[in-house]
Amino acid sequence: MSLLSQILTILLNGLQQGAIYVLLAVGLSIILGTLKFVNFAHGALYLLGAYLGLFITTEVQLTNGMLPEWGITTFGLGLGFLAALLIVPLVTFVVGIVMERFVAKPFYDRPDTDQILVTFGLAVIFQEALRALIGGDSQSLPQPAWASGPIALPIIGNFPRWRLGVIVITALLVLFVYALVEYTDFGLIVRAGTMDSEMVRLLGIRLDRPYLVVFGIGAALAGIAGVVGGPLANVNPNIGTEQLVPAFLTVVIGGVGKIEGAVLAGLLLGTLQVLLIQTGFAAWNRVGIYVLAAVILLVRPQGLLGSEVDVE
Amino acid sequence: MTVLQTDGLTKRFGGLTAVDEVDMSIDKGEGVSLIGPNGAGKSTFINLVTRRLEPSEGDIQFNEQSILGLDPHEVVQRGMSKSFQTASIFPDLSVEENAIIAALAAEHGSFRFNFLRHRNAYPEVTRVADEVLESVGLYEQRNATAKNLDYGNKRRLEIGIALAAEPDMLLMDEPTAGMSPEETESTVELIKEVKEELDLTFLLVEHDMEIVFDISDRIVVLNRGQVIAQGTPAEVQDDPAVQDAYLGGAEE
């Protein structure tokens, strides 16, 4: 394997690893930037996405947990992966809207710490309820048949087709959200609301509805991240919390509220992790992303593409 | 036609009566200034009219309908627009986007906007925004980011934002506060021009007497919550009660 193909492989794997962070961070970032709401339940939406994906795609035999004790031993609809890819975002969008109304909205005017407590609490409740019901075993979400196996790429050679699929799906979704925010009335109002929500209200525009949609979109992206990320690792009740911290790092490194920032930061973190893993420093890959985060935040506290930090 | 009318408008804070049975009316196309010494109740009056404060007594009619019970944003949608005391623009949006968002508010009301539509697909909104930028002299700079404008142009944009909502009445709360003499002069010119051009109805709150006498059709003088005089600039200038309120209040 030539050096060039090695570098390209690392970059492509980094792109894929980063893609999951990007999907999570874009939603988290627009929710934090626009609604000023710190959502520690974002990882739980990823978890929900992964399990819904599992549930819709396959039928799983359950051995642990309360459901088998109650006589329910098979779990799932077996509709296939494409169905999951279409249904999960819709379901998580609705879950996001319900969360905005009943969890986030009552806490908009409360301190960040209260928001963290309530959302993290909610995430833990969901995670542990899931573990109690179906057990903590790792399940595998199979790759879609149409995208499994390798694909031959120039220079790089064989590359897992599904990893490429994750990159393409992420790119399309991020472009969609970016276009929504940059080029539509909705986006203009959301961006203006991010800068000065009081003034948008004084102009006579109500922000309730745009905020609801922002939360829904963020939740849907996290749900999709769970589905597309599922086949790349095991699915178990811990994956939500595991993804939460890198997702927040991505948001902070990229600059709160900036989609381009989330993309850049996600790709940086992903590529660094893959670089460390593939050059024999696998044990250091988690350490690496924190060091990178610390260095970037020391130099640019507002994040790579963030605006000046406004002290409120 | 009467645009704004208050009847016996009163606001009490505990034992203090900040606004005391004020009857005031503004006709369409009229430029009215509200003046008075500090603590006369000007800000309270504005906050009552914009529905940010609940009156203790009295009625407020806008376009001949009572606006009691409405939310502030609903008052804006009825056509009362306010240019703010503090610099209020959206700093990271372009000049044109600043105007568009105000025009959107007027055009679509609260949340009827179709959020999947490209905003330029709605020519009316862009047309209003561009016309307003034209009339406040910022059309050439419409693609600039708002925060990069100089102070005077920021205040012009602010007035532009208020105008883009196509208001039936514009409230201006010290529009020249913090401006240099040149900027003040050009803003005063701007207000005069816009009034002429759009037959604008406005209510201005201002400390600077020179400006007030320059651009008002009528002046209302408030002291201790009550209207003590009103009339043309010349009438008000010669009114002994007004001179007393400004100069002689401390004698007793």
Automatic annotation (TrEMBL), chain A:
Keywords: Amino-acid transport, Cell membrane, Membrane, Transmembrane, Transmembrane helix, Transport
GO molecular-function terms, A-Z: transmembrane transporter activity
Compartments where located: Cell membrane
Highest taxon above the source species: Archaea
Main localization, broad class: membrane
A Gene Ontology cellular-component term: plasma membrane
Spans traversing the lipid bilayer: 20-38, 45-63, 75-104, 116-134, 162-181, 211-233, 245-269, 281-299
CDD domains listed in its UniProt record: TM_PBP1_LivH_like
Pfam families per UniProt: BPD_transp_2 (PF02653)
One GO biological process term: amino acid transport
Membrane topology designation: Multi-pass membrane protein
Family: Belongs to the binding-protein-dependent transport system permease family. LivHM subfamily.
Name this polypeptide is given: Branched-chain amino acid ABC transporter permease
Source organism of the structure: Haloarcula rubra
UniProtKB/TrEMBL annotation, chain B:
Keyword Nucleotide-binding: yes
Gene Ontology terms: cellular component: plasma membrane
Keywords, sorted A to Z: Amino-acid transport, ATP-binding, Nucleotide-binding, Transport
Positions of the ABC transporter domain: 4-249
GO biological process: amino acid transport
GO molecular function, one term: ATP binding
Membership in a protein family: Belongs to the ABC transporter superfamily.
Physiological role: Probable component of a branched-chain amino-acid transport system.
Name of the protein described by the UniProt record: Probable branched-chain amino acid transport ATP-binding protein LivG
Taxonomic source organism: Haloarcula rubra
